Amino acid sequence: MKKFGLATQIFVGLALGIAVGAIFYGNETAMAILQPIGDIFLNLVKMIVIPIVVSALVVSIAGVGDIKKLGKLGGKTLLYFEIVTTIALLIGLLAANLFHPGTGIEMGNLEKSNISSYEETAQTEEKGSIADQFVHIIPSNIVQSLAEGDLLAIVFFSVLLGLGVAAVGEKGKPVLSFFEGLLEAMFWITNLVMKFAPFGVFALIGVNVAKFGIGSLIPLGKLILVIYLTMFFFVFVVLGIIAKMAGVNIFVIIKILKEELILAFTTASSEAVLPKLIDKMEKFGCPKAVTSFVIPTGYTFNLDGSSIYQAIAAIFIAQMYGIHLSIGEQITLLLVLMLTSKGMAGVAGASFVVVITTLGSMGLPLEGMAFIAGIDRILDMLRTSVNVVGNALASIVMSRWEGSFDKQKAAEYTASLKKSNAA
C-alpha cells in the first residue's frame, strides 16, 4: 500500500480537526485538551527557525564574501518587494471598491470581539517614527533579538557575521564549519518536527472551530469570499505573470510547495514553513546566498497576502459604517498602508495591528475591527499561504536577476518530484 505523504497527512488532520471542533463547539474541556498539542507544535517550529536563519545566512554570506555584491542584492530585493506589495495593495483596494463587501452589513447581526490588546499595540507602534524603524533594524543586544525572534535585527547581525567570517580568511574557517554543521543538524531536526505537523494542525483547527463555530462565518461570508477570490487572482494572475517573466510556471512552484502551503494554510503560521521553504528553493536552483537572504527578509517586507487583506479590511470598515472615501482619500490610504505594513513587521498579529493603525490615522472607526476579529483566523490562513508563494517566487526572481538561477537543477528537482509522486 502506498504510504501517505506529509501533505495528505496534514489534510487528514485538517478535516478531522474541523469535524472534532464542530462536534465540541463551545466545549471548554475539549479546547483545553487540544490547545497544548497545537502550542507544542508551534513552539517546536519557533525553536528551529532562528538557528536555521542565522546559520544559513552566515554560511551563504561567508561564501559570497563581497559586501558590494551583497549591497546590490539587498537593494534589488527591497525594490522588488516594494513594487509587488504596492501592486497587492492596489488590487485589494480595487476589489473592495468593485465588490463592496461592507455595504449593507447589519452590525447588530455580528459578534463583537475584544481588540483592546491590538489597539494598545497599534498606539505603541504608531508613536515610533520611520527613523525609529530603521534604528530598530540594528540590534543593541543580539541575544535579546534572538530571544524575541526579531527577524530583521537577526538578518542584519548574521549578514555582518558572515562578512566577518569571510574577511578573516583561514581563521574564520572553523566558525564557518560550525555553522555548516549546525545548518545540516537543524534541517534534520526540521524533518523530525514536520512528522508532528498533522497532529499540530488537527489541534489548532479543532480549537478554532470549537471556539468560534462554523456559523460565525455566515454574516461575514461576503468579506471572506472577496478576500479569498482577490488572493487567488493575485497568485494566479499577478504572480503568474511575474513567474513567467522569470522563466518559471506558478503552478510548478505551487506543486513543489504543496506540503508547505497546506501547512501554512492550516497553522496560519509562516514560521512553520520557513526552514523547508529555504531548503526547497535551494533545491529548485536558487543559490544559498540568495534564498538565505531574500526569504527571511521577505518575511518582513514582502507580505503580499497581508497587503491584500489590509487594503480590503480598511475599505470594508468604511463601507460598513457608510463612510464614502474619495479617490484622493483612497490614495492617502494606500500611502499610509505602504508605510504601516512595513513598520509593524515582527509585531504579534501584525496584519490586524496594521489595519487598526491605518484606520486611526484615516479617522475611521477602530471598533469596526472587533467585528472582523472572530473570522480573522480564517482570513489569516490564506494570507499566510499567499505570503509563502510570494517569497518563494521572490527568491527565484532575485536569482534570475543576479544571473545565478540554475535551470538544470530546477528541471532535475521537478522531475525527481514527479517520479516520487508516481512511485
TrEMBL record:
It is a multi-pass membrane protein. GO terms for cellular component: plasma membrane. The lineage of its organism: Bacteria, Bacillati, Bacillota, Bacilli, Bacillales. InterPro entries: Na-dicarboxylate_symporter, Na-dicarboxylate_symporter_CS, Na:dicarbo_symporter_sf. Keywords: Cell membrane, Membrane, Symport, Transmembrane, Transmembrane helix, Transport. GO terms for molecular function: symporter activity. It is found in: Cell membrane. The keyword Membrane applies. Gene3D superfamilies: Sodium:dicarboxylate symporter (1.10.3860.10). The chain crosses the membrane at residues 45-65, 77-99, 151-169, 181-205, 225-254, 308-327. One of its GO terms (biological process) is dicarboxylic acid transport. This is Glutamate:protein symporter.
